Amino acid sequence: MKRLLLSLTTLCLFSSLGAELYVPNRYVELGVEASAGASNNLYGASDILTETITIDLKKIAGSLGRNGFVIDAFADTNAFFNLNLGTKFRLGLFANVSGSAFVGVGKEFFEVLADGWDFGETKEFSATAYGDLFVNVGASFHTTIKEKYGITIIPTYVMPVAYADDASAKVDFFTDESGPMKASAEASFALHTAFDLEDFSYDDIMTTKISDLVTKGGFDLGFSVERPTIKSLDVGVYGRIPIIPGRLNYKTTRTMTATFTEDNLIQRITDGEDFDYEYDEGDTEYSKSTKYVFRPLRLGLEAAWHPFGNWCVFRPKVGLAVRHPYSKKAIFYPEYALDANITLFKVLGFQFGTAYEDRIFVQRAGIMLNARIFQIDVKALFRSEDFINSFRFAGAGAYVGLRVGF
User: Fold this and answer.
1) What pLDDT, in 10s, does the model give residues 155-179?
2) How many beta carbons lie within 10 A of that of residue 243, not counting itself?
3) Which residues have CB under 8 Å from 49's CB, separation 6+?
4) Computed from CA positions of residues 348, 38, 92, 320, in that sequence, does the dihedral angle turn out positive or negative?
């Protein structure tokens, strides 16, 4: 993977230096934007909004990918100020809050429900989850070198609020042809936080809690390098490199267990009697434990092609991302996007696009109204971990942005 990252970086630097991929509409502007969404990879809107809901276990098991049944969610808010004094000097300041969550139930669970299992055979199912919440503040600076190379640098101070990558669940089943059945389940989670949740109080959140957050932040560096190649095509390389990790000094854990044993399962079902089981919800434990946290690493190529003029722009993007970088739990995955932007008289705009970002397929459509002193953007998002289900409304989201200035 190191060679792959090095090769991609070298290719980016030597083949796609660029400028003016994104042209600002105002000299000075203030803005806020927010987006949120959630999805699953199994049920589309047409599967749920029907008079009769049909559950075909064999079909479900066959349609799931290696991640099994996935539920994801995200939310992002951003406030910014931009000063655009030509291509030589552009300065931006921003602050944002972003969070995400991902839960996956193993495909084996649905395969057993569909096909059953043999007597004397032990079956194991698993589930995993992760999530994060960050507060970020930073700046961006853009300039042009030699009249054609556009360079943007984005240093960001990253303050993790909460982080979970150790949540898991495991279930074991065993049956015997004479009737006995045994089952056990265990679920555990570890939540790393900037604050001690054991004595958490909203009364002092603006004093000691904020201090805990601000003093434990990390640093990453975003960048883009762009240049025009031909009259209608601008290309560039972009990246976000985590450099210094943020720290979370508090840990909250809990382990829950359940066991079920039945000597004569068939007789119990025949008699209609209740099943006996034991359940232990466990104790919540609080401790001090340092967790070093990075935001995902990203490297990629992007372009802006305007074959008919600036009113019609196609924006392809392809890259590589790494969640939990620099760790044994690192997850490598590709990312891509292809958007078409159509702007009429620089006032009314439309956007249509498809993307694979943060391991989720996204289809999006939006509208933009630019009245010079203010601009509003609205987008509808359709999402899913499964490509086909992203078109079947298995998940949805929205984006709203507002800019004011001159």
Assistant:
1) 999 999 999 987 888 888 777 666 5
2) 12
3) none
4) negative
